[in-house]
């Protein structure tokens, strides 16, 4: 996607400097910063402290982290240690483990002398594949938007509600939930997006709104609790969100608050779609509520907000009384029964075991 006249991915290897670069998302929407990360500790910090975020981008970042560490020391011990250090950073997003497994399985049989170059090639392949996967998610999701648009009056927009940021900033490019939106705009279908603020990190307010602004997509930023009201009054036509882990039976784990949106959509007979790359499916898990580990983040994210003051300075401000602790579960699980469909790179599946296996039959014997 473009920022100004320049096309950016959210992470890339700069051949001129020999360094991996990322968009440091902590500063958006107020500042656009590109930074280099070139040690394993920095890659771990970038993932843990959310310089990068979003399940697909976390996986891509981890892949490059392994590659950089292989430049330093390509031994088996260091490969295993890098896997462990990066895996510990974010427990919920399955793409992290998927990417680390892909790297280790490819590198382990190779001689140490070949590992660094092979690791960078593999990391780039993971990034390129993510871009194409997300493009295809957009192609399939576009057809769902077309179906809704066909029921509207000429020129009347399709009103889409989204939660958190599942945009190109959460992937290498295109995004998951936003990819159908970008494709709809390119196809000339009028849309309007309701952007949940997504407390406590405000990824909707800071990142999704920034993306919508940059691409000229009509949108409104709303507080997290406004979605149900809008649905009751016929102002939401469909919901599209992303996911950090999807079970083999179609439960979806996404940013905290997603479950409540799904309940409201179900009560108002509004289709609730989840957009995901297949790397986000955890085929080893069936019951999302009982089996998916939910990350507990620092309570300070709840008791403080980050923003720009009137003088233009960017700072963190406390909003709670001294001594009040913040509880901060980062994700919740939406049961498959509340999900209308799963938008993947292979098509739209029913949120069920059979629905997923219908698109991914190669998993049938392994399931």
What would your notes on this structure say?
The structure is a single chain. The protein is of the alpha/beta class and 367 residues long. It folds into 2 domains: 2-129, translation initiation factor eif-2b, domain 1 (Four Helix Bundle (Hemerythrin (Met), subunit A)); 138-363, 3-Layer(aba) Sandwich (Rossmann fold), CATH 3.40.50. It has helices at 40-48, 55-72, 76-87, 94-107, 112-149, 179-186, 203-214, 227-232, 258-267, 288-291, 300-303, 353-359, and strands at residues 2-3, 6-7, 11-14, 19-23, 34-37, 158-162, 191-196, 219-222, 238-241, 245-247, 252-255, 272-275, 281-282, 304-308, 314-318, 331-334, 341-344, 347-349. The strands form 5 sheets. A 7-stranded mixed beta sheet has the order 8-7-6-9-12-17-18, with helices on both faces. The protein has a 4-stranded mixed beta sheet with strand order 13-10-11-16, with helices on one face. A 3-stranded antiparallel beta sheet has the order 3-4-5, covered by helices on one side. The radius of gyration is 20 Å and the shape is globular.
Q: Notable features of this structure?
A:
methionine biosynthesis; Four Helix Bundle (Hemerythrin (Met), subunit A); M1Pi_N; 18 strands; 367 residues; single chain; alpha/beta; Rossmann fold; amino-acid biosynthesis; 12 helices; globular; 4-stranded mixed sheet
């Amino acid at each position: 996607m473009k920022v100004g006249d320049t096309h950016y991915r959210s992470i890339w290897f700069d051949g001129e400097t020999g360094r991996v670069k990322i968009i440091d998302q902590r500063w958006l929407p107020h500042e656009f910063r590109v930074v280099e990360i070139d040690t394993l500790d920095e890659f771990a910090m970038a993932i843990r402290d959310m310089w990068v975020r979003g399940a697909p981008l976390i996986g891509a970042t981890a892949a490059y982290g392994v590659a950089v560490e292989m430049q330093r020391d390509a031994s088996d011990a260091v490969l295993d240690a890098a896997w462990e250090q990066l895996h510990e950073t974010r427990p919920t997003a399955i793409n992290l483990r998927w990417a680390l497994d892909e790297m280790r399985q490819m590198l382990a049989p190779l001689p140490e002398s070949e590992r660094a170059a092979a690791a960078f090639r593999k990391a780039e392949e993971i990034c390129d594949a993510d871009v194409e996967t997300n493009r295809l998610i957009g192609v399939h999701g576009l057809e769902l938007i077309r179906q809704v648009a066909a029921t509207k009056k000429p020129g009347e927009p399709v009103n889409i509600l989204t939660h958190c940021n599942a945009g190109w900033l959460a992937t290498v490019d295109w995004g998951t939930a936003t990819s159908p939106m970008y494709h709809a705009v390119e196809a000339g279908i009028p849309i309007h997006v309701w952007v949940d603020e997504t407390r406590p990190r405000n990824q909707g307010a800071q990142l999704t709104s920034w993306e919508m602004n940059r691409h000229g997509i009509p949108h409104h930023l709303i507080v997290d609790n406004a979605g149900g009201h809008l649905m009751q009054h016929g102002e939401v036509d469909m919901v599209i969100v992303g996911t950090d882990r999807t079970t083999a039976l179609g439960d979806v784990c996404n940013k905290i608050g997603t479950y409540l949106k799904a309940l409201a959509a179900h009560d108002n007979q509004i289709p609730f779609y989840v957009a995901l790359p297949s790397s986000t499916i955890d085929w080893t898990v069936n019951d999302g509520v009982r089996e998916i580990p939910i990350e507990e983040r620092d309570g300070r994210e709840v008791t403080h907000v980050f923003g720009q003051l009137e003088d233009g300075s960017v700072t963190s401000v406390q909003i709670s009384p001294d001594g009040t602790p913040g509880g901060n579960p980062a994700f919740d699980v939406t049961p498959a029964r509340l999900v209308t469909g799963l938008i993947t790179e292979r098509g739209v599946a029913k949120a069920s075991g059979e629905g997923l296996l219908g698109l991914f039959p190669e998993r049938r014997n392994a399931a």
